[in-house]
Amino acid sequence: MASSPPRPIVSIKGLEKTYASGHRALKGVDLEVHAGEIFALLGPNGAGKTTLIGIVCGLVRATAGTVIADGHDIAQDYRAARAKIGLVPQELATDMFETVWHAVNFSRGLFGKPRDHAKVEEVLRALSLWDKRNAKIGALSGGMKRRVLIAKALSHEPSILFLDEPTAGVDVELRRDMWDMVRRLREQGVTIILTTHYIEEAEEMADRIGVIDQGEIILIEEKHALMEKLGRTRITIGLKEPLAAIPPMLADERLALAGDGRTLVLTLMGEGEGAQGAADLIKRLGAEGIDFTTIDTVKSSLEDIFVDLVGKRP
């Protein structure tokens, strides 16, 4: 029996935004985010990421287009749509003189949710903030302040969580902790949409990747399919004796000889070709009686793919 197609929980069609200055920040964006996935939206500064998030979260008015959030049109049914969405902004925008407990309770009340101390306690414990519940936010470390922002965003039990640069400015250990927390949220059924400058964050966590540039979505792809389709494997072999040229039996447009004649470089497209390609090349070298001293295999990262995609745009 065929599996049913994924349910879109965020559906964006024909989204346009032109600011009063005349700057066209979004140019007919179409995007669907599936329920229960982690979707990473990547793009250089000024690509339109923040504008897109702002429109979906009701902070920016679209010039044209529609956005449906968990069944609710954000323009026609704003309150219901916004109640489905949690937003963790990039900036640490919160009252530094209130306590963690008060801030999270207040955020829950903003969305019309009844008092539920057990739910607030659950959120704070999940974020390792329970011991800090009576602390003033201004007295917390940067990483803890960011956790408070996440707690506030989760306080009204949204089904969709936007994380705008969630680990900007936090150390590597805390970044790993937050990745683990995001995975737990997904396991609980929350759909995660994140923007990040740390492309390894998307590579580590995302199910699908979207790339936005100059206000347009230029690619949406399942992560592993993207790596398979656009990734490269570079195999570098150090030769025992220099070659004047590549022997005819080794001729391959993907094989190059470095200037000193001591290094062969084979470039393979696709994530899965690397190991087999290296083994085949070693056999062919042996058959030609060519000895080598070193072999090094490097796979392109998501960052390499991203730079290639954006760099090729006019």
UniProtKB/TrEMBL annotation:
SMART domains: AAA (SM00382). GO terms for molecular function: ATP binding; ATP hydrolysis activity. InterPro entries: AAA+_ATPase, ABC_transporter-like_ATP-bd, ABC_transporter-like_CS, ABC_transporter_ATP-binding, P-loop_NTPase. Residues 10-239 form the ABC transporter domain. Keywords: ATP-binding, Nucleotide-binding, Transport. Pfam families: ABC_tran. It comes from the Bacteria. Signal peptide: none annotated. SUPFAM superfamilies: P-loop containing nucleoside triphosphate hydrolases. Coiled coil: none annotated. PANTHER family: ABC TRANSPORTER ATP-BINDING PROTEIN. This is ABC transporter ATP-binding protein.
